[in-house]
């Protein structure tokens, strides 16, 4: 049957080509037999169909962007088999076998990224084993629980698990999924350390700005590239080679 992989695409912040590029990166770097399904809203279905991407419509709950990921915890959408989830806003730059080995060995219902800035979950790369714990997160959303978050985002998921299923969350080994902005910040003071961290990572996560295409054209998108580091031209196209080799041309 192969490994189930999901991504989520809703709204207009990222075009369907982001999902297509994710599919190509997974074909290149995920050696295990797998299939990618794009969970989407109605507005994105025609474009995904025209690209030949396997897709499934989310329930029309009025959620957009990262809040739509709460439906990953609804087994009526994803099914009962374990699966991997990848954001569309990342670059897969190396083989994903370390993630697969860790995921196979760790029995946690949910494995995610330890956030780079806050003591919480970052949901950009996850493994879910549908069951009581994941269903409880979905039920917390349906019950309208207030976890102090603006919508059912990754902090909501983390806090719902902490309240109802402590111990259900594990995190990937440090460094396998790296923050692009974190690596660039590190490179400002220690280029060698940033290079080692990049080499250890199989996934680069782009959160906020810049996005991958903005790194490739920094003068067209200067606010988070050129103007962010006006005296460091080496950072304007930081990791552009990885983006070109794996995201743009994969």
How confident is the prediction overall: mean pLDDT? 94
Largest sheet: 7 strands, mixed
Measured distance between first and last alpha carbons: 25 Å
Helix content: 25-40%
* Poorly predicted runs of 5 or more residues: none
Can you walk me through this structure?
The structure is a single chain. By secondary structure, the protein is of the alpha/beta class. Helix content is 36%, strand content 18%. The strands form 2 sheets. A 7-stranded mixed beta sheet has the order 3-2-1-4-7-6-8, with helices on both faces. The longest helix has 14 residues, at 16-29. The mean pLDDT is 94.
Highlighted features:
250 residues; alpha/beta; seven-stranded mixed sheet; three-stranded mixed sheet; 10 helices; 10 strands; 18% strand; globular
What's the structural blueprint in terms of helices and strands?
Layout: E1 3-9, H1 16-29, E2 34-40, H2 45-50, E3 55-57, H3 75-78, E4 83-86, E5 90-92, H4 97-105, E6 110-114, E7 121-128, H5 132-142, H6 154-164, E8 169-171, E9 177-179, H7 180-189, H8 191-200, E10 203-205, H9 212-216, H10 240-248
Parallel strand pairs: 1-2, 1-4, 2-3, 6-8, 9-10
Antiparallel strand pairs: 4-7, 5-10, 6-7
Helix pairs in contact: 5-6, 7-8
Write a concise synopsis of the structure shown.
The protein is α/β, with parallel strands linked by helices and 250 residues long.
């Amino acid at each position: 049957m192969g490994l189930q992989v999901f991504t989520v695409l809703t709204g207009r912040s990222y075009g369907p080509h982001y999902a297509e590029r994710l599919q190509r990166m997974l074909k290149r770097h995920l050696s295990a037999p797998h299939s990618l399904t794009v969970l989407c809203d109605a507005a994105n279905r025609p474009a995904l169909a025209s690209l030949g991407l396997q897709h499934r419509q989310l329930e029309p709950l009025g959620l957009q962007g990262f809040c739509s990921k709460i439906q990953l915890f609804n087994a009526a959408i994803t099914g009962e088999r374990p699966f991997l989830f990848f954001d569309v806003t990342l670059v897969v730059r190396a083989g994903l076998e370390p993630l697969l080995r860790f995921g196979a060995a760790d029995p946690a219902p949910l494995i995610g990224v330890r956030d780079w800035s806050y003591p919480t979950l970052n949901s950009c790369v996850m493994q879910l084993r549908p069951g009581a714990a994941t269903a409880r997160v979905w039920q917390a959303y349906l019950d309208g629980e207030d976890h102090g978050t603006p919508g059912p985002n990754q902090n909501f998921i983390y806090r719902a698990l902490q309240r109802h299923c402590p111990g259900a969350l594990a995190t990937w080994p440090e460094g396998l999924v790296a923050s692009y902005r974190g690596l660039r910040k590190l490179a400002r003071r220690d280029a060698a350390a940033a290079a080692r961290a990049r080499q250890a990572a199989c996934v680069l996560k782009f959160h906020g700005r810049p996005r991958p295409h903005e790194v490739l054209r920094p003068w067209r998108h200067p606010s988070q590239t050129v103007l962010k580091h006006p005296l460091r031209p080496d950072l304007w196209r930081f990791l552009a080679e990885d983006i070109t080799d794996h995201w743009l041309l994969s």
